[in-house]
């Protein structure tokens, strides 16, 4: 934000979902609180906007989210490639106990992730570039059991159609990732648009007894399967 806080909001600009305009970073946190974050949501192509007027004051700061959910795991996505945002997040995370950071991971642009990895070395992080470097090395020498540095104490996600080609996939690979204190999440489709395993039927594509993470946008549908 304009006053150096971290707002929790999906987009870098406000126009899509709120009654505001411009970039999130051009507003203070107090100004963002005045916006209606339910303004732009529609499920019928714009014929109705059922949440308008209900989202004023509801854009949270990262600190508020963590205060409300003190023990939950979170994946933090920095939307830009600005290293300053990595600095801001590092400053905040270093105030937390190590046990709390152990339940967190972050991904985003190469520059803010590099800052995070340097400043908060126990945080699991991933950028597209670091993941590519690690996976290319693993494809070349993973048959030996070697796990590249970019895949150690890291967060990784990869579409299932590519994950099938990893040495030891799925069980031995996941064992190696866990031994490296990393977290692996399998994504549906090409991975370009955060495609998830969003139906019970789609879960059949995942190998039996797979024990890594699963990316979904519809936990309401697939959550009951695992219960």
Descriptive overview:
With 227 residues, the chain is of the alpha/beta class. The protein is built from 9 helices and 6 strands; from the N terminus they run ααβααβαβαβααββα. Helix 5 links the parallel strand 2 (104-108) and strand 3 (124-127). Helix 3 (83-93) runs parallel beside helix 5. The longest helix is centred in the middle third of the chain and has 14 residues, at 128-141.
Key terms for this structure?
single chain, 227 residues, alpha/beta, 3-stranded parallel β-sheet, 9 helices, globular
Runs in which pLDDT lies below 50 for 5 or more consecutive residues are: none
- Give the overall average pLDDT: 94
Radius of gyration, rounded?
Answer: 19 Å
- Which band does the percent of strand residues land in? 5-15%
The number of distinct β-strands equals 6
Structural class: alpha/beta
Globular, elongated, flat, extended or rod-shaped: what is the shape?
globular
Distance between the first and last residues' Cα: 39 Å
Tell me about the biggest sheet?
Answer: 3 strands, parallel
Order of helices and strands: HHEHHEHEHEHHEEH
**How helix-rich are the residues, as a percent range?**
25-40%
Please count the helical segments: 9
Report strand order across the widest sheet.
Answer: 1-2-3
């Amino acid at each position: 934000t304009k006053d150096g806080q971290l707002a929790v909001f999906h987009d870098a600009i406000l126009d899509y979902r709120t009654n505001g305009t411009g970039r999130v970073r051009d507003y203070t946190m107090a100004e963002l609180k005045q916006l209606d974050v339910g303004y732009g949501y529609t499920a019928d192509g714009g014929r109705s906007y059922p949440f308008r007027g209900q989202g004023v004051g509801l854009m949270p700061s990262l600190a508020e989210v963590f205060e409300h959910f003190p023990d939950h795991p979170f994946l933090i996505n920095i939307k830009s490639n600005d290293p300053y945002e990595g600095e801001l997040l590092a400053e905040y995370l270093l105030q937390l106990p190590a046990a709390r950071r152990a339940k967190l991971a972050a991904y985003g642009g190469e520059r803010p992730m590099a800052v995070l990895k340097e400043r908060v070395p126990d945080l699991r992080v991933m950028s597209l570039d670091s993941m590519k470097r690690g996976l290319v090395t693993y494809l070349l020498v993973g048959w030996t059991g070697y796990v590249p540095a970019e895949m150690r104490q890291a967060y990784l996600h990869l579409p299932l159609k590519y994950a099938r080609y990893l040495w030891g996939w799925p069980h031995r690979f996941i064992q190696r990732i866990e031994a490296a204190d990393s977290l692996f999440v399998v994504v549906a489709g090409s991975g370009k648009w955060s495609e998830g395993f969003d139906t019970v039927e789609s879960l059949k594509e995942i190998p039996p007894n797979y024990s890594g993470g699963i990316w979904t946008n519809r936990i309401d549908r697939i959550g009951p399967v695992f219960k």
